[in-house]
Amino acid sequence: MEVKLMSIKPSLPLLLVTLISLSADILLAQAPTPRRPVNGIVGGSVLLSVDPPRGKKVKQIEWSFSSGTALKIQLAEFNGRKFERPDPSDRFKQRLEMYNETSLRIQGLKLDDSGIYEARIKLLPAIVEDRAFLLTVYDLVQPPQFQSQLLASTPEGCNVTLQCQASGKGNMTVSWRKGNLGQELDLGRHQLSPDGRTLHLSLQPSSLNSTYTCMVSNPVDRKIISFDLQSICRSGDADTSFSKPGYIALTFFLLVLSLGAAIWCWRINNEKAADTAATPTGPGEESPSDGQYAEIS
């Protein structure tokens, strides 16, 4: 008897479907939990809240923190209304608080509190869900350094340069506004430097009553400085044909000229006084006031 062995080869479409399914499962398993962005300010506080599915009862919530490295710190556990800290002496110490059964509050924020906060939610009967927050802590914005430079002021208009420099740490944005309503600048009519910190203006007399505002900001704080163009441009109305060095040179020249004239007058007066004192009086001259006497015999 002859037995024939037949090999069964899987069809190509079935193999592709299997590979695609496995790849999708692997990608889903490796996909990180979406992170909700949260901003905070140094010295302030933030509230991290999770929303469990409706109709589900929370058994436990585990909170953890990582600053971008592989090391992850377990911060706290919520067991109903019970708040437990595995390591109360960690870098957060007494700054963590259980706001309610599903919310963690962090007080006295510091710059190095920035990082990823994860919450593992255990629901009854046996469901686990993960939530993640990306916290970024910003420093307070310091008052900007500002300067104005008058280039020219004539009856026909005013040319001026405004500078606004951000100070302090962190990434900050410098923006300009026009008028009390904070209108955005028309870049076609305004010359703004590439870094946005220097504004060149050429204004007509009818526009001198305008106010320009510089705002330095980050996502949680801002500082504003206003420039009064009318005051800046009027500071050059006295004489626009001379620059500041020209005025200094002219003042020095007039001072030297006045001093030279005073010395010349003093020498002339001294010479006249010396000539008068050196003129001699003759011995035979009689004073006109002397009387004439006649001899009587």
UniProtKB/TrEMBL annotation:
Main location (coarse class): membrane
Keyword presence, Chaperone: no
Residue ranges of domain Ig-like in the record: 144-226
Residues covered by region (Disordered): 275-297
Domain of life: Eukaryota
Listed GO CC annotations: membrane
Ranges of Low complexity composition bias in the record: 275-284
Alphabetical keyword list: Glycoprotein, Membrane, Signal, Transmembrane, Transmembrane helix
Keyword Ribonucleoprotein appears in the UniProt entry: no
Membrane-spanning parts: 247-266
Alphabetized SUPFAM superfamilies for the sequence: Immunoglobulin (SSF48726)
Coiled coil: none
Cleavable signal peptide: 1-29
Subcellular location(s) per record: Membrane
SMART domains: IG, IGc2
PROSITE patterns found in the cross-reference section: IG_LIKE
PANTHER family registered for this protein in UniProt: IG-LIKE DOMAIN-CONTAINING PROTEIN-RELATED, SIGNALING LYMPHOCYTIC ACTIVATION MOLECULE
Protein name: Ig-like domain-containing protein
Organism of derivation: Pelusios castaneus
